[in-house]
Design a protein that fits this description.
The complex is a heterodimer.
Chain A (H helix, E strand, L loop, with lengths): L5 E5 L3 H12 L5 E5 L15 H4 L12 H5 L4 E3 L4 E5 L4 E4 L4 E3 L2 E4 L3 E3 L11 E2 L4 H11 L5 E4 L3 H12 L4 E5 L6 H18 L3 E4 L3 E7 L2 E7 L4 E3 L2 E4 L3 E3 L15 E3 L4 E3 L2 E3 L4 E5 L4 E3 L4 H15 L11 E6 L2 E7 L6 E8 L4 E8 L2 E8 L2 H5 L17
Helix pairs in contact in A: 1-7
Chain B lengths: L1 E4 L9 H5 L4 E3 L6 E3 L9 H10 L5 E4 L3
Antiparallel strand pairs in B: 1-4, 2-3
Classes of the chains: A alpha/beta, B alpha+beta.
Keywords (chain B): 3Fe-4S, Electron transport, Iron, Iron-sulfur, Metal-binding, Transport
Function (chain B): Ferredoxins are iron-sulfur proteins that transfer electrons in a wide variety of metabolic reactions.
Organism (chain B): Planosporangium mesophilum
Chain lengths: ~400, ~70
């Protein structure tokens, strides 16, 4: 395979930027175009639910690179113009503004779109949190909010609840799990998180699915639960998952199934690659299709894609990693934590909220969790047994 | 090359330490990045550049006019 003359990266967030940077770093000298749906230069999403929402950081602070670093990349940036179609055989991308962009290699890095509740559109006071503009809109509404209901008991929902509580907002968290992140962390750690949130004044209304919203005069008034209860609210954040942003790939001829399906080289078709949240690729070590929604995968998979474009014939086989900050708890997770795993505390002390937990399944270490012990958790990464990380697990 | 770290942005992932342990470390108490060598030797430049690019918090910057 020859090195392409022109590469087009679709998606200008962490993965897209990382693909461009990695191509240049690896010596690629051809033309590069980065196409982004949002008007903003590449920015970082993890702080949106924390420092940006709280107001601790100005929106400028989340820019991933300063202007001089971006111009150094010698890349054409087309921002504020979403991709609306792809012809995979011709490697041609059509945009909302009518642009037609053709390249020898196309990198799909369009990320996720938040799931929403029926009736959510057009109801004032209801938010999602995916973009910088989303974060600013939610922040503006929280200033005069008397009761926020967070729909979602996963990472994003728990972070938003913690941040809003820190701003002095009255917060209720709703979701189907018995405790925040129970499906990811299992009962011990999720129980500790529930304790932490309760202690800090978050009202937990967990264990019942959210079925819809209540509203009056075009404004939200509450959240309806499957139990029949209605949780009153004047602001609601819907944070119960997201789906890969692939609707623009309809009719492209590519296989879309929970993301853009790729081989072990993150290649969807000849000259078409995917990186980040949108990529559903074959993890060779695990022999399974995997899609990771986390920040480190966005950059690392983009580096792998840059290598593949330049002829590097290696599978992409990462060990998953993510972190989450809630109140003063900073949790780091390496590998995969199965909720039914056998959990042992190997360092620190649960009572002091500073510990490292090892998750085992069939005697094999599948995950490591650090609670306010990031370095100590990372140093145990090598204990992970790669092939057992996903045995019988989620795909 | 000059390397700068923003400890306020650092999330404690330790990605940089895994890539370039001669240049970066983490504090034992909270995992925040510690810069061991702000002007690494030329042989380390490629890996330090990669560390800056893949830092999940965008906390590392590199300037080349040195």
């Amino acid at each position: 395979m020859s090195v392409p003359d022109e590469v087009l990266v679709v998606g200008a967030s962490a993965a897209g930027l990382s693909a461009v940077e990695a191509l240049r770093r690896k010596g690629y000298q051809g033309r590069l175009t980065l196409l982004g749906a949002e008007p903003h230069p590449p920015y970082d999403r993890p702080p949106l639910s924390k420092q940006v929402l709280s107001g601790d950081w100005s929106p400028e602070r989340v820019r991933l690179r300063q202007p001089d670093a971006l111009s150094f990349l010698d890349t054409t940036f087309i921002l504020g113009d979403p991709a609306v179609g792809l012809d995979a055989a011709a490697r041609t991308v059509h945009t909302a503004a009518g642009r037609v962009l053709t390249a020898d290699a196309v990198v799909v890095a369009t990320g996720l779109r938040p799931r929403t509740l029926p009736g959510q559109d057009g109801l004032a006071g209801v938010h999602v949190l995916r973009t910088l503009d989303d974060a600013m809109a939610l922040r503006a509404d929280l200033r005069s909010c008397s009761r926020l209901v967070v729909v979602g008991d996963g990472v994003l929902g728990a972070e938003i609840a913690a941040t809003a509580r820190g701003m002095g907002v009255a917060v209720t968290m709703a979701g189907p799990q018995p405790a925040p992140l129970a499906m990811q962390f299992g009962p011990l750690v999720a129980g500790l998180l529930a304790e932490l949130h309760t202690e800090r004044g978050v009202e937990l209304r967990l264990g019942a699915a959210v079925v819809g919203l209540a509203g009056e005069h075009g404004r939200v008034t509450g959240v309806r639960l499957s139990s029949g209860d209605v949780l009153p609210a004047d602001v609601v954040v819907v944070a119960f998952g997201a789906a890969p942003a692939t609707e623009w790939l309809a009719g492209s001829g590519l296989r879309v199934d929970n993301g853009l399906v790729c081989d072990s080289r993150c290649r969807a078709a000849d000259g078409i690659y995917a990186a980040g949240d949108v990529a559903h690729w074959h993890h060779e070590q695990l022999d399974a299709l995997l899609r990771l929604e986390n920040r480190t995968n966005a950059t690392e998979q983009a580096v792998a894609v840059a290598g593949a474009i330049l002829g590097d014939d290696r599978p992409y086989t990462p060990a998953p990693y993510f972190w989450t900050d809630q109140f003063d708890a900073r949790l780091h997770v390496h590998g995969t934590l199965f909720p039914d795993a056998e959990v042992s505390i190997v360092e620190g002390d649960v009572a002091e909220r500073r510990f490292v937990a090892i998750y085992r399944r069939d005697g094999k270490v599948t995950g490591v969790l650090g609670w306010n012990m990031p370095k100590q958790a990372r140093l145990r990464r090598q204990e992970l047994v790669a092939t057992s990380m996903l045995v019988g697990g989620k795909s | 090359m000059k390397v700068f770290v923003d400890q306020d942005k650092c999330c404690g992932a330790g990605t940089c330490v895994m890539l370039a342990p001669d240049v970066f470390d983490q504090r034992d108490e909270d995992g925040i990045v510690v810069l061991l060598d702000g002007q690494p030797s030329e042989g380390l430049h490629p890996i330090v550049r990669e560390a800056a690019n893949v830092c999940p918090a965008g906390a590392i910057t590199v300037s080349d006019n040195a």
